[in-house]
Amino acid sequence: MDMHYATSTREMASLLQIEDELIGHMRQYARELQLKVNTMRTFQKEWKTRREQGPADPTTYVANPLISFPLMRRMYTDAPKLMEFARQELGQGPLQKLLERDLTSISALEMHMAATGLIRFQGVYGLEASEMANGKLYGTQYNSTLSSADCFALGTHLERLQKGKLACKWLIVSVDQYNDQLDPVNRLLLAGRSQIYEKLGLTLLSMHDLPASQAALKLSVACASKDDNTKLANHLIDNLAHMLVHVDNCRGKNPLSRNSSLRCSYFTESDPFLRLAPLKLEQLNHEPFIALYHDVVLKEEQEDLLYHTRSRLEQRQVDPAGVEAEVEANASDHVRRLHRRIEDMTGFDLEDSKPLTVFNYGIGGQQFIHLDCEQPKEFVEPFTTKYRTVTVQLFLSDVEMGGYASFPDLKFAFKPASGSALVWHSTDNFGNCDVRSLHAICPVLLGTQWVARKWISGSGQWRRKPCRK
């Protein structure tokens, strides 16, 4: 459509709207440029202030480790980021000279050595991180301090060396030293409050202090700006929430509620034979469906499964404290009867499912928190054989201490008995992976645990469950 601005006042008036938009764009551009200028000035002022705090003689100036380490860090860490920041808008004159300055001679090794030297200095003289950061060395107060970014660099250096306890001290001091007036600079250096708390959370996680790690990661998200990347922190917060519940589950703090609407019954529905020999069913959860069948694996069946696996057990890749072996459905009459019983318990066809897998967990052996299912691609029919929709876990031994079956998202756990079978649905009624079915086996504290697991595939269920809707 042709516009005739010159000959139509109505169309000419529409140019005012365009001009107003351009003015707004220019105002925003000018504001961003001013923010950049302010950040550069903050850098310049901070560096100049530090230079003026020390003696004029360069050799004397760098003799103080509270001055030499920050100098090394600024040249190695800050200066390249400042130059990259400046390159976003190339200019002439002093800026061009700044960008052409070669900093390649300041290597990662130099930075590593400077940090190591300062930490060695701290250890030999028994100095506190907070006192060093505030300029106090061996009882003498100096007119020089470590910035938040300096302390953050030291904490990161120590975390890489797996010295978590000392790293946490420096990271906490980094928070204490944080200057809100330098916030734009620290964010540019990826050393803002959010980044400090995230590093603290990761360090605490490596030390297995789950509550403190979760608290630090939550502070990381709370302090983040819209430009900060919080994907890792949010992901870890969710996982830590489940891990903390799982720890309580393993300690017996979240037993099954006896006041719920769940019930025990004799199960007779899936096969006419069950009317003569019903299964003892204890329903543990409605959605997703979780049930415990009592006394469904006979003693001779347990012994038969162990007989077929003892010589073929292999160490598990996911947990060296456990071993496993598969047992084919036609391995013996006992195994065939077990498979028919699993079909009766679940109402699912086992034809496309993998063989029974027998696991043995020794002292400390466990199954980590995980899901048995993966979300299938939308509108794909039928399910692939790898897609697990139901899990059946047969317990083949009693454990003296530990070995609880844990459901962290549902906040409950229980100690299974030998001969029982745990059944849970990993998918909802639409065939989607149900995250509420997160599960684990707690570490074995005393004794040994034998279990057999059958993953029932969503494939081949067209007779039992015709569609995903």
Task: Characterise this structure.
This protein has 469 residues and is an alpha+beta fold. It folds into 2 domains: 158 residues, no CATH class; 194 residues, Jelly Rolls (Sandwich), CATH 2.60.120.620. The chain is 44% helix and 16% strand. The protein has 14 helices and 17 strands. It has a 9-stranded antiparallel β-sheet with strand order 3-4-5-14-10-17-8-7-6, covered by helices on one side. A 4-stranded antiparallel β-sheet has the order 9-15-12-13, with helices on one face. It has a two-stranded antiparallel sheet with strand order 1-2. β1 and β2 form a beta hairpin. α7 packs antiparallel against α8 and α10 packs antiparallel against α11. It is elongated. It starts with 8 loop residues before the first helix and ends in a 12-residue tail after the last strand. The mean pLDDT is 84.
Number of domain units? 2
CATH topology tier name of the largest domain = Jelly Rolls
Helix content: 40-55%
- What is the CATH superfamily of the largest domain? q2cbj1_9rhob like domain
| Sheet with the most strands, sense and barrel status | 9 strands, antiparallel
Strand content: 15-25%
Structural class: alpha+beta
Low-confidence stretches: none
Extended strand count: 17
Under CATH at level 1, the class of the largest domain stands as Mainly Beta
CATH architecture of the largest domain: Sandwich
Q: Tally the helices: what do you get? A: 14
**Average pLDDT for all residues:** 84
End-to-end Cα distance, whole Å, is: 49 Å
Q: Taking strands numbered 1, 2, ... along the chain, how are they ordered across the largest sheet? A: 3-4-5-14-10-17-8-7-6
Rg, rounded, reads 32 Å
What is the 3D form? elongated
